[in-house]
Amino acid sequence: MCVYQRARHKSTSFIFWVDNWPGGCYEPRMSTKQQLLIYLKEGKGTWVSGEFLAHKMAVSRSAVWKHIGSLKDDGYVIESSRKRGYLLRQTSDLLLADEIREGLNTNVLGKGEIFHFRETDSTNIRAKYLASEGAREGTVVVAEKQTQGRGRRGRTWFSPSGEGIYTSIILRPPISPNEAPKLTLMASVAVAEALLSLTSLKIKIKWPNDILIKGRKVAGILTEISTEMDRIDYVVIGVGLNVNTPRKGFSPDIAHTATSVFMETGKVFPRIALLRAFLEWLEIYYEAFKTKGFDPILNRWKHLADIIGRRISVDLMDNVRVGKVLDVDKDGFLILQDRTGTIERIISGDVTLLSQE
Q1: Domain span at residue 148?
Q2: Domain with 315 in it: what CATH number?
Q3: Contact in structure between 54 and 31 (CB atoms under 8 Å)
Q4: How far apart are CA 337 and CA 326, in angstroms?
Q5: How many domains in the chain?
Q6: Strand 85-90 relative to strand 77-81: parallel, antiparallel, unpaired?
Q7: pLDDT of residue 350
Q8: How far is Cα 46 from Cα 283, in angstroms, rounded to an integer?
Q9: pLDDT grade for 349, boundaries at 50, 70 and 90
Q10: Is 2 inside a domain boundary?
Q11: In this predicted structure, what is the pLDDT of residue 262?
Q12: Which of 150, 216, 186, 206 is nearest to 349 (CA)?
């Protein structure tokens, strides 16, 4: 049973409840359902009697049975027997808060509030609202499905139910707004490291924030900020990662450019393990950014991108630039030299790698 927070939107006079968000749930303290799951997991594949569970949690056996039904609705495979009790056969593949926290090796990210949605419009939209209401740094929003998932330049992010990782993390870095683009590169390195640590896939980053496998996009990042005067109020880092989508699962308009971990490995991959790894790597690089600066992160990004010296075209929306990448500067922007020798600093655009001359 979820305990919901009441929130007042700053720009309106009405009050609404977090549970008005479809599938949204935040549990700030351990519930009876959570306790029940702990006891089932401690059983390690053995039967746990209903009488034992009722006694331990100081509830009736009928209450235990109702919570067992709720766990089944959450995707846990549990066998029931009048004589033997309950047996947890398989944990849920849903990106539930308890499953994310279990074994998560972080100090901040994911250790506080985790908001899980069966379906929502956009995790970034939800995270920005929570951040505007004072949500702490490290708050995580995660969804099984997005109906309005977004990428850069307002593009739609393909977000089928139960197949990918769609998450947004709230950060409150002590930096000026002009440093915010660095966080996008930082997040792309964290996604790449998570994939490299758990798979044998060859991962590349395409400037500024696309994660590629064999030239196809497996993940993207959308960073949004809110500023107050000359400082950042909050940053929301949104990540969409294609995990278990089959080839036929992609819509025709992106089927030739997109891929998934499943497509590249031929195996269904545990999404929770990958999400945990991303949160751990993001915290590692975020702490490094705050204590050591951006240079170590930029060096790792350059290694994973392998773009220096490459010929590219950059779509700037109003025109296209073609040239050779001389460097990625201290702010994460491209330094491009065209055929005439003119050097230009590219702040934003869509990159296409070209064949070498």
Answers
A1: 97-304
A2: 2.30.30.100
A3: no
A4: 7
A5: 3
A6: antiparallel
A7: 83
A8: 36
A9: confident
A10: no
A11: 95
A12: 206
In this structure, the answer to whether residues 326 and 185 fall within a common structural domain is no
Q: What is the 3-state secondary structure (H, E, C) of the chain?
A: CCCCCEEECCCCCCEEEHHHCCCCECCCCCCHHHHHHHHHHHCCCCCECHHHHHHHHCCCHHHHHHHHHHHHHCCCEEEEECCCEEEEEECCCCCCHHHHHCCCCCCCCCCCCEEEECCECCHHHHHHHHHHCCCCCCCEEEECCECCCECHHHCECCCCCCCEEEEEEEECCCCCHHHCHHHHHHHHHHHHHHHHHHCCCCEEEECCCEEEECCEEEEEEEEEEEEECCEEEEEEEEEEEECCCCHHHCCCCCCCCECCHHHHHCCCCCHHHHHHHHHHHHHHHHHHHHHHCCHHHHHHHHHHHCCCCCEEEEECCCCEEEEEEEEECCCCCEEEECCCCCEEEECCCEEEECCCC
Q: Same structural domain for residues 204 and 290?
A: yes
> Any idea which of 108-117, 157-166, 199-208 has the lowest mean pLDDT?
157-166
Burial class (CB in 10 A: 0-12, 13-18, 19+), 45: exposed
Is the CB of residue 198 less than 8 Å from the CB of residue 280? no
CB atoms closer than 10 angstroms to residue 329: 12
The Cα–Cα gap between 333 and 138 comes to 27
Of 158 and 306, more confident: 306
**Residues 289-313 pLDDT 10s:** 999 999 999 999 999 998 888 898 8
- Is the preceding omega at residue 252 within 30 degrees of 0, hence cis? no
Nearest Cα residue to 95 out of 204, 239, 203:
239
Same domain? 161 vs 223: yes
CB-CB neighbours of 82 under 10 Å: 6
